[in-house]
Design goal:
247 residues; alpha+beta; OB fold (Dihydrolipoamide Acetyltransferase, E2P); 2 domains; five-stranded mixed β-barrel
């Protein structure tokens, strides 16, 4: 049996047996791991507070030989991001961000850069009151960049010569007017500049821009469609988030 001490944030939780929880923890050292937290489902248990979705903690995990599931031996909470967990709209957005993170990274693949991008977005929602639509679009694009899907924004992704006219969701880059296909998003100057800023900015400055509601909406549509097209997924959490926005 191996003992691991690592920081991580809970990105999924499900009931496991009577009074226990199965957690998916995005850790610094091991990537996303599954771990059972015994007693976390009991309200009076010491493990309850550190077994919640979005709990960022210092975990002590034990792993058994020939088992993909670890055991949480202890967890010291660093931040529970309560302003997010107490807001159903922000909470549903983070559930979607967690789902696409799991979808692109899978289990057991350490990626400290993506972990910090995720944490920065949750922090921005909790303590900086950043616009949810903006955070969603920025995370979607930064996640894709971090995992090898960085959009090509110089020239035409098809012929290599024409000036950018639209963004091709399948090719993952800009295309000229002559080469534009069916699955494209028309780019104007403002949308192109916003897209370029997010893709090229330092991760710590990724949210340091302003945009009108209309631009944020168009940027968000492009980013969302790019993720769903490239990863070929349709997470239920996205539909739930959009439902919550209507409340």
């Amino acid at each position: 049996m191996a003992q691991i001490r690592t920081k991580g944030i809970i990105i999924r939780q499900t009931d496991y047996g009577e009074g226990h929880r199965m957690l998916s923890i995005f850790t610094e050292d091991c990537g996303i791991v599954k771990a059972v937290s015994y007693g976390a489902g009991k309200s009076r248990s010491k493990a309850a507070a550190s077994g919640q979705f979005l709990c960022w903690a210092d975990f002590e995990l034990h792993s058994k030989v020939n088992s993909d599931i670890m055991t949480v031996r202890s967890a010291d909470t660093i931040d529970a991001f309560l302003p997010v967990t107490e807001d159903i709209k922000k909470l549903s957005l983070c559930a979607y961000l967690a789902d696409i993170t799991y979808g692109i990274l899978g289990s057991g693949n350490p990626d400290i850069r993506l972990l910090h991008i995720f944490l920065n977005c949750v922090y921005a929602l909790a303590y900086k009151n950043e616009d949810m639509a903006k955070v969603k679009a920025v995370y979607e694009l930064k996640m894709m960049c971090a995992e090898g899907y960085m959009p090509s924004l110089t020239g035409c992704a098809s012929c290599g010569e024409g000036e950018p006219y639209a963004f091709d969701l399948e090719r993952g880059g800009t295309v000229c007017k002559k080469c534009g296909g069916k699955n494209t998003v028309r780019l104007d100057g403002a949308l192109y500049r916003a897209l370029s800023y997010i893709v090229s900015s330092e991760d710590k400055k990724m949210l340091s821009f302003t945009a009108s509601d209309d631009l944020t909406e168009r940027l968000g549509s492009l980013a969302e469609r790019y993720v769903l097209t490239q990863l070929d997924i349709n997470p239920k959490s996205l539909a739930y988030y959009k439902t919550m926005l209507k409340i």
